[in-house]
# Entry
Amino acid sequence: MTGPAPAPPAVPKSASALRLIGTLGGFGALAGLLIVAAFTATQPRIRANKAAALAAAIGEVLGAPDRYDTLYVSGDALSRDLPTGQTAETAEAVYLGWRDSLPIGYAVVASGSGFQDNIKLLIGYDPATSRLIGMTVLESKETPGLGDKIYKDTTFGAQFSQVTAPLVGVKTGQGTGRPNELVMITGATISSRAVIKAINTTLERVGPLLLAHQKELPQ
Amino acid sequence: MSPARKPPPSQELIKGIWRENPVLVQLLGLCPALAVTNSVANSLAMSAAVLFVLLGSSLLVSMVKRIVPGDVRISTYILIIATFVTIADMVLEATVPLVHKELGAFVALIVVNCIILGRQEAFASKNSVGRSLLDAIGMSIGFTLTLTLMGAVREVLGNGTFLGHPVFGPSYEPWVIMILPPGGFLTLGCILLVFSWLKRRGEARAKTTPAVAGTVVREAA
# Structure
């Protein structure tokens, strides 16, 4: 004689589909609310920080201008108005510096591939003389101790206040004294070349626009 | 069989610092421990972000543990964690933009930091709000101490500075490798070696002097 069959082990009951959707939907809505609140609270300060960093960089590469105007590359010309369909974040901008009511040069963003990742620079440029006024590195992930000398080595940085475009990189002690020669950093040749290439490529493209715009300005 | 007695609340706070240190014992959170410890400032900023996310997530998860169905608990925890990470990311960008830029994608990657999800699944979802907060603070302190130690060793040797201030004279030639990725592995390996040696030595001493060890445990409790 056999007894009643043993009861199968209890299987934990799953929650209904509606409850699962409700739980995830509820937490999703709460997450959205918290993120929007944080975004609203922090965004003005983030924008102010970015504007201050940009103003400091422009001041550095143009030699402390009194003020600067933001211009946008629109087709084959520079314009104070945003190109159609673009925002201030997406449009390519250049900055015209003024001192004593006279234009002193343009600050232009140049970027190119470095050793590790993209390098983003801001250069000060006078199109009339093809002379660079200054250079600062906005973004770089170059190797610490080697490639990062493009912004830590003051001797390398100081050369950008007197060199003319298009730049030609030369190794230490091999310069011939031409005004467009830039002495590269020993041990950071790839990063130095990346900086030179980024500047030359950008000025080759934007330089004629800057020159045309400069001719229309009061001298 | 009576349920296991829970340790006193103070133990929840202390355990993360040494006995259950998230990095040195549980070997969790190794990605930020290796990636952002090339300076003390970066280590402290990452630790502050982890503290904020761990505290917020543990608080919320321990509060809602009874209303979240088991089938969607991991998804819900990740949603909660991702929310706090996004907030931490925005706050860091607004308050310390340079450090935020240095940390790069590693702030966003806190979402997948095993310490955070591990504590929710293993602790906050099973314990009270108070204990969960103590656990979160203890684990964060353990994480902070480890990252700061790694950051200090790497910055001092690799850059010759501590929090940006020169430590050695101008004649010091920095060991650049220490602030490069291999330096992270070397430092972590050495710290794990010393930590393991100290832990084993402590355990061996406790075995040889049980009366003294018992006194210490009672005092701690």
Summary: The beta strands of chain A are 67-74, 77-79, 93-99, 102-113, 118-126, 131-139, 168-170, 181-183. Chain A touches chain B through 27 residues (CB under 8 Å).
